[in-house]
Amino acid sequence: MANIYIFSEPIQSGRTTILENWLPKVQGAAGFLTPDIYGQRKLYDIASGDYFDFEVDPGDCPDHTRMGDRAFDNNIYRHGRQLLLNAVNNWPRWLIVDEVGPLEIDEDGGWEPALSEVIKLHYDSDNECDLMLVIRDTLLNEAIQHYRLHAAIVLDRKFFGK
Question: CA 14, CA 91: separation in Å to the nearest integer?
Fold first, then answer.
């Protein structure tokens, strides 16, 4: 049985960059990262190598979700959810979700309901896929409770050689 890992560090501590540097060392990864590129959040599809404009100007994108002073394209949220659901049809070696935050935990938004479905399927199936959830340190305990991740292995940057 594969494991669920939680990579937890503070906001703006380089979690996504650490994963970007780690990915070339692993084979068979899928899912997504959400890097900041030139000050704009993107969604990076790990399997295809494609980038999508995730952070938007609310005036240019009527279908968006606000998080603080940022707005995110709901079409990209839908795309990310579909990436997760597609991955469970042919479990990759690693399935990475960057990141699980307040939208998912408090509002059932963002990557939900696909994220909960993937976690449930991961627990219920006999697969070799390790699931990596990126969760900011201030939400770690809440996320563990919300998703019943008590058996998950919590990692910090040392796991990645940082």
Answer: 27
The one-letter amino acid at 7: F
Q: pLDDT for 83-115, tens place per residue? A: 999 999 889 999 999 999 999 998 889 999 999
- Closest to 97 measured CA to CA, from 142, 87, 39: 87
Is the link from the previous residue into 107 a cis peptide, with omega within 30 of 0?
no
> How far apart, in whole angstroms, are the C-alpha atoms of residue 14 and residue 162?
10
Which domains are assigned to the chain?
A: 4-160 (3.40.50.300)
Distance CA 17, CA 91 (A): 24
- Cα 141 from Cα 139, distance rounded (Å): 6
Cα–Cα distance for residue pair 162/159, rounded to 1 Å: 7
> DSSP 3-state assignment of 38?
coil
pLDDT in tens, 14-69: 999 999 999 999 999 999 999 999 999 999 999 999 999 999 999 999 999 999 89
Q: Where are the alpha helices (DSSP H) in 11-113?
A: 15-22, 74-87, 102-107
